[in-house]
Amino acid sequence: MTADIHISKHEAKLEDIDSINLWCECDPELRADPGSVCHKCYWYTRHRVCYHNLNDAMKRNLKVFNKLIPIDEMPWMNAAYFRYSSFGDISKLVHARNFIALAAANKHCNFGWWTKRPELIEKAVLKDNYWPGNLVLNVSAKYLNKPMKYVPCFADRQFVVWTKDKIPKQKQINKEVEYICKKQCKDCLVCYTKNNIKIVHEELK
């Protein structure tokens, strides 16, 4: 039996890129810190309050992903590109193991994965000794205007959010390894493909 997983549809920047999202309890210290990305999170301030159907779906997904899903029960993704965690994040080792297995079961599809919990992914890789080539890991910086000094070696890049007055200009970046996010995801795909970009900069919405 195929696992019953809710797929989120999107508009605007994420138009035509579907995603899987798990309910998570936000870190209270990061939420309280004005310098953190979590303090400005639109999901926490808007979607979590207003979009009850989405929240219910994320909670159902959490229950599904809280158990290790057999590879033959993974759904087939009817997409060339897909996203993990457009809202929320993983919070357990088993979530990371399932996300990796789902990508492995859908080799025709490239998965872009955003997370602030790379330590869980590292544990999953060490446990299962596997990382599919169609899975692209974007580690999100926890703080505004502050690129990470250390990015795990298994990550493809870091994703940094900036306030409007601080975001780098095109002439200030090394275009061989840095990219300023301005397009719709479907017209860009930097975060969904293997390439030389190591830092993606995005202006805070």
Output the helix-strand order: EHHHEHEHEEEE
> How confident overall, as mean pLDDT?
92
What is the count of β-strands? 7
Strand order of the largest sheet: 1-2-3-4-5-7-6
Q: Which spans of ≥5 residues are poorly predicted at pLDDT below 50?
A: none
Structural class: alpha/beta
Helix coverage percent of residues? Answer: 10-25%
Based on CA atoms alone, the radius of gyration comes out at: 16 Å
**How is the biggest beta sheet arranged?**
7 strands, parallel
- N-to-C span: 40 Å
Q: How much β-strand is present in the residues? A: 15-25%
Number of domains: 1
What is the general shape? globular
Supply the number of helical segments. Answer: 5
Give an overview of the whole structure.
This protein has 205 residues and is an alpha/beta fold. It has one domain. Helix content is 25%, strand content 16%. The protein has five helices and seven strands. Strands 1-2-3-4-5-7-6 form a seven-stranded parallel beta sheet. Helix 4 packs across helix 5 (118-128). The chain is globular. The N and C termini lie far apart (40 Å). The mean pLDDT is 92.
